[in-house]
Amino acid sequence: MSSYPGKLRSWMTQALTIGSLALFPAVLTFRFGHSSIEAWLDDEPARVSFAVVSRWDRVLWIDARSAPQYSRDHLEGALLLNEDRWEELLPVILEAWAPGRRIVVYCNPGRCDASHSVARRLRKELGTKDVYVLAEGWGAWALK
Amino acid sequence: MRLATPVVRFGLAAVFVISGVVKLADIPAFLNAVSQYQLLPPKLVLGLGIYLPWLEIAVGFALFHPRFLHGAALLISVLNLVFIAAMIATWHRGLDVSCGCFGPLDVGGLRAGIARDSLFLAAASALLLTSPTPARPCLQPAPRAG
Fold first, then answer.
1. For the residues A12-18, what does the mean pLDDT come to?
2. I want to staple A69 with a disulfide (CB 3.0 to 4.6 A). Which of A56, A65, B52, B126 is the partner?
3. What single-letter DSSP state applies at residue B94?
C-alpha cells in the first residue's frame, strides 16, 4: 500500500506520459495536415477592444446585426452589412471605404458568429487585412 | 460498485474519444469555438485547438489500460476543472457562446456545458479515488524447491 504523495507522483507520471503521447500526432497534424488550419489563421480577423478602436482615426464601422436591430439603434456612422443581404449592401460599403481605412465589425454581444463571418468575407472580398471584430460587441461604448 | 466502475470508465472513454474525433474532423470549427471564449490569443488558440483533440483521444484510450487508468482519470479531472473555469469566466463576462465541447454534436450553451463537465469531473474523480492500483509484478525469485 503506497502513500498518497507516492500515489500522486505515480498518477502525475502517467498523466505526463499520456500528454506526451498526444503531442506527437498533434505536431504531425500541425506540420503536415490540414491546409484548412493555415486558412483559418489567415482568415481569422483580429478582435479588438473598444478602448483600442477609440484611438484609431477614420474607422469604418460595420453593423453585422439584422436590419430591424440596425434600424432600431446603431452606432453613429455605422453601415449595415450582413450575410442575408450581402450583395445588396456591399456597394454602400465599397463607396464608403478606401484602402488604408480600418474596418471594425460588431454584432450582438455574446453568441454571435455574424461579426466574424462578415469580417472574414470582407477581408477576402476587399483584399485587406485591416478588418477587425469588436471584442465586446454591440454596446461596448456603453461599458466604458 | 463492482459494475459501476467499468461502466464509468468505458463511458468516459467513449465520451472523450468521440469528442476528440469530432473536433479533429473539423479543426477550423473547433478553433472558432475556442476563439469565441476570448480568453486566449490566436496563436494559443491554434496550439490548443490542435493538441486538445489528440489529448482527449489519448486520455480516452488510456482509460482502457489498467496501468494508465489513474493518470487518465487525473488528466480528465484537471481538464474538466479548466473547462468549467473557462466557461464560468466566459459566462460571467456575459458572453453566451456555444460550449464547443462536441463540435457539431454540441447541445446547449455554456450552462449545459458546465453541468455536463461537472458530471465528468465527478465521474473521473470517483474513478481516480476508488479504482485499485494495479499490483506490481513480483520481481523476487521463486523459492527453490527442495
1. 94
2. A65
3. T
- The strands making up A103-106's β-sheet, listed across from edge to edge, are A47-48, A131-134, A103-106, A60-63, A79-80
The number of beta carbons lying within 10 Å of the beta carbon of residue A21 is: 17
> What's the residue count for chain B?
146
B54 inside 8 A of chain A by CB: yes
pLDDT, tens digit (0-9, with 9 covering 90-100), for B53-112: 999 999 999 999 989 999 999 999 999 999 999 999 888 876 656 777 887 677 777 888
What is this structure's pTM? 0.65
3-state secondary structure at position A109: coil
- Test B27 with A15 for CB contact under 8 angstroms: no
Contacts of B136 in chain A (CB under 8 A): none
- DSSP three-state, residue A131: strand
User: Which pLDDT score is estimated for A141?
Assistant: 74
Name the maximum alpha-carbon separation found in chain B. 78
* Partners of A48 in beta bridges: A134
Cβ of B42 and A44 within 8 Å?
yes
Res A2: pLDDT: 60
HSE toward the beta carbon, residue A113, CA cutoff 13 A: 9
Quote the minimal CA–CA distance from A47 to chain B in Å.
Answer: 9
